[in-house]
Amino acid sequence: MHKAENDRAALSQLSGTDYYSYGLQSLTRALVQPAALHRGLADGLPSNVTLLEQSPVTEIAGLGPFEVRTWKCAFAAEQIFITNNLHARAMGLNIGRMLGIFTYAALTPELPEDERFKLGEEQSWRLLPAHRIGTTLRKVGRRLLIRSGASYEREQSSSHVSALLAKFYSNRFPQMRSHEFQHVWGGVTSITRNGGYHFGQFKPGIYVSAGCGGAGLARGAIHGRLLAELAGGQTSQLLKDRLGMKGPSWLPPEPLRSVGAQIEIAVAKLQGGRER
């Protein structure tokens, strides 16, 4: 992968903060707006595909054909693809070995010109932390987006999250007049103990990809293609390689699972240091 090295001075000129001492810049990169990507994919579906929204699946029953039950009605299907990550646990199929981790983000109001230029001269940029528990920053036009924090299986209060993210924001940009946010939110992702994925045929007619570990866009795209190959009876070297990889490792039952996860998060926060 092509990359360029940046010292503290270069990073400061780019982002407006001297908080960081060193960074690597990938020259093969792209910034994606996830919601726009999802809407675009939905709008581009072929005519033989029917998209149902606002119809969450509550249960999958039967042995084939399967009955897919939703809040509104039920459907019959010979083959099913389950690619809803952590929520696969709620399908009644005993898909486990995943932990739910909430992480949080906030967006500033539109900043006036003099404040916006305190975030660097570039119109947009993104900084990714070296440590997985660290803080992500993104300059989006006239706003700053910040993402950080982690909690196990339960979302923290908005007041706690706002204070935490404001602290990380002020640590990096003390020169700003205000460190208040217009929007604050949280989202849940799934991780596994060893980083392994649920991938492949879960049982005859049911195919699963779950446990993204925060890399859903890249892994999810290729997993979708490979699951289609598998369900269609096709093969490829990439599919063979993927099927040969290890799946998620065993997790202890509660309450040991919760205690272990909390310890892991605490240790990661210590290791993350100034990356938080």
Automatic annotation (TrEMBL):
<protein>
    <submittedName>
        <fullName>Gamma-glutamylputrescine oxidoreductase</fullName>
        <ecNumber>1.4.3.-</ecNumber>
    </submittedName>
</protein>
<feature type="domain" description="FAD dependent oxidoreductase">
    <location>
        <begin position="12"/>
        <end position="230"/>
    </location>
</feature>
<dbReference type="InterPro" id="IPR036188">
    <property type="entry name" value="FAD/NAD-bd_sf"/>
</dbReference>
<dbReference type="GO" id="GO:0016491">
    <property type="term" value="F:oxidoreductase activity"/>
</dbReference>
<keyword id="KW-0560">Oxidoreductase</keyword>
<dbReference type="InterPro" id="IPR006076">
    <property type="entry name" value="FAD-dep_OxRdtase"/>
</dbReference>
<dbReference type="Pfam" id="PF01266">
    <property type="entry name" value="DAO"/>
</dbReference>
